[in-house]
Amino acid sequence: MSHSEIRVRFAPSPTGYPHLGNIRTALFNWLFARHHDGKFILRIEDTDVARKVAGAVENITESLKWLGLDWDEGPYFQSQRLPQYQEIARKLVDQGHAYLCYCSPQRLEEMRREQMRRKQPPKYDRRCRELTGQQRARLEASGVTPVVRFKTPLEEETSFHDLIRGKVTFQNDTLDDFILLKSDSYPTYHLANVVDDHLMVISHVLRADEWLSSTPRHILLYQVLDWQPPQFAHLPMILGPDKAKLSKRHGATNIIDYQRQGYLPEAMINFLSLLGWSLDDKTEFLSREELVKHFTLERVGKTAAIFNKDKLDWMNGVYLRKLTPEQFASQSTLFLQRDLPPSVKHPLDNSYISTITPLIQERAKTLGDVPRLADFFFLGDLEYDQSLLIKGTDTASATKAIETSLERLKPLEAWNTASLEDILRPLATELGLTTSKFFGLLRVAITGRTASPPLFQTMAVLGKERCLKRLNKALHEIKMQN
Ligand code: GLU
Questions:
Q1: Ligand 1 center to residue 171 CA distance, Å?
Q2: Residue numbers annotated as active site
Q3: Digits of tens for pLDDT over the chain (482 positions)?
Q4: Phi/psi of residue 348, each to 5°?
Q5: pLDDT tens digits for range 320-371
Q6: At what angle do helices 417-431 and 395-409 cross, to 10 degrees?
Q7: Ligand 1 close to Cβ of residue 46 (< 6 A)
Q8: Which is the closest atom of ligand 1 to the Cα of 214?
Q9: Which atom of ligand 1 is nearest to the CA of 193?
Q10: Which of helix, strand or coil describes residue 233?
Q11: Cα–Cα distance between 1 and 177 in angstroms, integer?
């Protein structure tokens, strides 16, 4: 492994399912690795036993696989590497860079409350930092399990160069004597993260902005361990359209939900790539290959990115329309099978589906829209909203319109778009109705709704028998209104 090799990692904590922000971090790391012909490593930071969520690891790997973010090494699990962290913690204590702290959780909690009351930042008061040998022996004998804390320098400051933000400086006295090893002998994030980035020869740490204040602590650890730190790049935050931190409220649930809702991985990748990065001021559509080719940290912004769900929907719609009709039909099938109302008979007929989906492809923003837009193709009897059937006309003219249509359509043998149009278009004038009113009425009768794919194509796909049946039922409903 040469020193100049680019090695980056995605290091999620399995304390929940990954959301957009997490996956944007994964994507930028992946793009950076692929751009530089480097390595992308997956590391599960599972040292917070209490906050571990069942199924989170599987969800993380499933999300990455869905999006095609393949990793070269891992997943490594920190919980399987405990001796390494424990050894480093011991070494730091031996060298005087860290110390054992015996303060009870109750004492720390009281201290925290008191500091809050005085409006001071919560911080350990360093009581155990200068314990004498005798005091330590006494505490040890009392059976308390200590934690290991870092001996943060009391003065001066710690700076580092962030590849996105430039020079960043923190005053050491704000950094606290943070914990390295907890009383359960698990490392904290700070210790495990630094040890692993070193042992895994990580060249660049690309992570979300929220970790910025951890970095000076990590730098101090690298210094006392005499290790070369990686380069750091803190990625801009992602905010909702209301400029608040992105949350479920903005529709930003876990990433697999986007798969369930029928977003395409390629659209997600394109969309996520633009949350904090851009090629120039105008380019919106970039393929995965183009992203790999062009991705650089220089074009990652400093200011927060805004998550715009409408833009995602629009972009996904564009990607859906780029699919071939066959691809769209086969991808839609899964959603139709899953989401059509239970009254629809299964298995669905694939060749029937392939006559329907071309009518939907233009209109769907997600594959999840397909069953909603196409359910009337599959349903037996429709339930009508009666007021829609006579909307813009009256019962008498609606009755006449449908009766005449039935009369003309019954003998029709070549049931196709052109012949249907040939019969029905002139009929509007004959009935003294505008085409929009007449076709509107037929549309409601045939589909049960006021918006649908083009009427004649829809009727052609539905077939004669279904259409006549629906027209009869609609007629019956109209007459019932009298
Ligand atoms: N485990 C941290 C997380 O959940 C990793 C942060 C980092 O990349 O250092 O995001």
A1: 23
A2: 248
A3: 445 899 999 999 999 999 999 999 999 999 999 999 999 999 999 999 999 999 999 999 999 999 999 999 999 999 999 999 999 999 999 999 999 999 999 999 999 999 999 999 899 999 999 999 999 999 999 999 999 999 999 999 999 999 999 999 999 999 999 999 999 999 999 999 999 999 999 999 999 999 999 999 999 999 999 999 999 999 999 998 888 888 777 776 799 999 999 999 999 999 999 999 999 989 999 999 999 999 999 999 999 999 999 999 999 999 999 999 999 999 999 999 999 999 999 999 999 999 999 999 999 999 999 999 999 999 998 999 989 998 888 999 999 999 999 999 999 999 999 999 999 999 999 999 999 999 999 999 999 999 999 999 999 999 999 999 999 999 999 998 76
A4: -75, 155
A5: 999 999 999 999 999 999 999 999 999 999 999 999 999 999 999 999 999 9
A6: 140
A7: no
A8: 9
A9: 9
A10: strand
A11: 35
Q: Is 376 in the pocket of ligand 1 (CB under 6 A)?
A: no
Q: For 339, phi and psi rounded to 5 degrees?
A: -110, -10
Å from CA of 207 to ligand 1 middle:
7
Distance, CA 11 to ligand 1 centroid (Å)? 5
Long-range contacts of 317-320 (CB under 8 A, 24+ apart): 317/364, 317/365, 317/366, 318/267, 318/285, 319/264, 319/266, 319/267, 319/270, 320/264, 320/267, 320/361, 320/364, 320/365, 320/366, 320/367
Question: Distance between CA 235 and CA 442 in Å, rounded?
Answer: 54
Spatial CA neighbour of 372 closest among 320, 319, 449, 458: 449
CA distances (Å), origin 182, targets 143, 187, 260: 15, 6, 39
DSSP annotation of 300: B
pTM for this entry: 0.94
Ligand 1 near 12 CB (within 6 A): yes
- Which residue's CA is minimally distant from atom 2 of ligand 1? 12
CA of residue 396 to ligand 1 center, whole Å:
69
Q: CA nearest 27: which of 171, 235, 246, 307?
A: 235
Class of domain 1-79+236-322: alpha beta
The domain locations on the chain are 1-79+236-322, 82-195, 324-369, 386-479
Q: What kind of architecture, by CATH, is found in domain 386-479?
A: Orthogonal Bundle (1.10)
Cβ 240 vs Cβ 246: under 8 Å: yes
Q: Does domain 82-195 have CATH number 3.90.800.10?
A: yes
Q: Is 211 in the pocket of ligand 1 (CB under 6 A)?
A: yes
Give the CA distances from residue 300 to residues 28, 38, 215, 233, 237, in Å, rounded to whole numbers and listed in that order. Answer: 9, 19, 19, 9, 11
